[in-house]
Amino acid sequence: MLTVYAFGNVPAPVIGVTRDLRVLWAAEEAGLPYRIHPVDHARGELRSAEYLRVNPFGLVPAIDDGGFKLFESGAIVLYIAEKSHRLLPAEPAARARALQWAFAAIDTVESSMADLFVIDKFHADKAWAKERRPMLVATAQKRLASLDVELTGRSYLLGEEFGAHDILMSAALRLLQHTDLLDAAPSVAAYKVRCEARPAWERIYAAYEQRLAA
Does domain 2-87+200-213 have CATH number 3.40.630.30? Predict the structure, then answer.
């Protein structure tokens, strides 16, 4: 059975956007049996020798699949898709487009949004953050405008079929949900709502909230 190393507790500002969510969502969508190994952030378990053998960077998430260990959320989501023969198209060109969007989610979209999230949640009162924020907002607006054009008339990134690339993209968009930036990108906003209305997301998120509240 797949073991998913996930947060057992996290600081309040990052609840709901931690990267273990995307791995759990992929496993749930794919129908793979899995168990959660909660990692206690508060007690320093991320830096324990045992966990560093799973992820040398001491970050969550990671998985252990019968002795095969893997870290980095994007890599894990794609591994789950490959293992389950779900969440990625079989046809080569369509598969390449799905991978294109998966990498775009992590490299092009999420990077600037993560920087904005960190500034807003942890450094909002600092002078350097106030100076840098407008540039990050402008970049996020640019990315959202481009994405809005692509999603107009589509349910998901490749049309009507939900996949691993959508998990990664909608996870990136959650980093902006504390702002009003999605208001100017209605197709993106509707896409995010549509993704998060999926039963698999609702199940794993309810379990996540329960775990963090324990």
Answer: no
Q: How many CB atoms lie within 10 A of CB 85?
A: 9
Helices (H) then strands (E): counts for the chain: 9, 4
The β-bridge partners of 64 are 3, 69
Domain ranges of the chain: 2-87+200-213, 92-198
Tens digit of each residue's pLDDT (9 = 90 or more) over 171-212: 999 999 999 999 999 999 999 999 999 999 999 999 999 999
Helix (H/G/I), strand (E/B), else coil: 66: coil
Cβ neighbors of 39 (< 8 A, separation 6 or more) are 5, 6, 7, 8, 45, 46, 51, 60
Rounded Cα distance, 13 and 2, in Å = 28
Rounded distance between C-alpha atoms, residue 175 and residue 177, angstroms: 6
Q: Calculate the CA 154 to chain-centre distance.
A: 21
The residue to which tokens 């997301």 are assigned: 201
Domain 92-198 belongs to what architecture?
Answer: Up-down Bundle (1.20)
Q: What is the pLDDT of residues 41-94, one digit of tens each?
A: 888 899 999 999 999 999 999 999 999 999 999 999 999 999 999 999 999 999
CA distances (Å), 112 to each of 2, 42, 83, 108, 119, in order? 32, 27, 31, 8, 11
Length in residues, the chain: 214
Instruction: Give the C-alpha distances (Å, rounded to integers) separating 144 from 47, 61, 94, 95, 133.
Output: 36, 26, 23, 23, 16
